[in-house]
Amino acid sequence: MIEKVENKGDNLFDPVASKLERFDKGVAIRKITPRSTHQEWEPSEIRKDPIDILIETSIGRIESLLPIRYTRMMESPFAFYRGAAAIMAADLSQTPNTGIDLQLCGDCHLMNFGGFATPERKLVFDINDFDETFPGPWEWDLKRLATSFVIAGRWRKFPNKTCKEFAWNVADSYKRHMLEYSKLSALQIWYADIDLAELIERGEDEDIKSFQHKRIKKAGEFTAHEKEFAKMTYQEGSRARIKDDPPLIYHPIGDEGKRILLDAEAIHNKYLTTLSDEKKVLLSRYNLHDIAIKVVGVGSVGTLCGISLLMSATGEPIFLQFKEARKSVLEENVKAKSKYTHQGERIVRGQKLMQSASDMFLGWTNDDNNKFFYIRQLRDAKVKPVIEIMKAKNMNDYAKACGWALARAHARTGDPSVLSGYMGKSDEFANAISRFSISYANQNDLDYNKLLAAVKEGRLPISAEV
């Protein structure tokens, strides 16, 4: 059994101390929390049952959608991991940490990274999901990300040694790029981004490079809204309507359905009032044509999420996505309390802190029943990772890219000099993270089997999802 190390680090960036002094502060923290301690994982004697945690996180969700949530998590240990951020957050709270807090993604796994277009129409690579963002120990994001590569690698049938190499490359890339950011000014870090096309060119697999460049070209040929409009809508008289594709996209029916759609329309209208003047002028050129519920992701299934279709007078569409914003799974596992009472604001503020560029329509609102939401464009030239076709060398390249993107995000709200001083230039830290990742992937397998048993026992409902 490991012993939890008390937080003794300094969470505050010191603008007076020199980079060298802050680097030395990071080195000194090794004496309190040696780098090798990050390899440790052993479940606590008071560890909560993972199925109980899943059931607790389902409270308040749309009950009719819960079977879809559990069915998706049953698909594989990797699918389970994607929906089990709350379980890992509770476990990470029992592991050693340096006491250095910064803004976390909170659900930092490899499918929550990808390419997207900035408001300036530049394609960048970055983190793209912030539902769980919250201040906390910087190591937590890195451990969740590295472990996701082990679990995904096993799902792809790569040998354990290769999966461990993926995790090692996440941590090593994070360490190397954090050292680079430690040499920049705060303003230079804030301007930094990762160009998607340049990132792809760094790879050595010509087939994958060609495949990815074709995807980039396709993403830029038409606006994402035009592509979605062709796939997702039909004409009903003078109005465009979103096609139903139950159980994943649908218009609720009956009295409850009418209430949900009225709530969704009220959410949309309230959101419009929160926008800056220039965004209000832009969206005033569009009228709301339709709203539908859209089931998304794994961890978000059961929360109230949907899409709004807006049309201009000349027929150009915009799709906006609204997502229910719930309390971060990190909050009850860290000492800090949220500075935001509005969960939608928490997500938007955290996203803007961590991302190099955020969606121009990103905003937050709430309904009349004290439910919180955030809103963004449905898609904007997104280029998602396709891990199903990746060879080992492609996974290693992707691991390095994700480690880089996480380092850039953490450097914005943390102190890269302190973090670099702590990690150092040796392989000790990356070795520890890779060992932790193997151990926690084993734990995830055990928890996944508990999910299967709970379904068999009837504790969790499942569906015949299309």
Automatic annotation (TrEMBL):
InterPro entries: DUF2252 (IPR018721)
Protein name in the entry: DUF2252 domain-containing protein
Pfam families for the chain: DUF2252 (PF10009)
Annotated source species: Flavobacterium psychroterrae
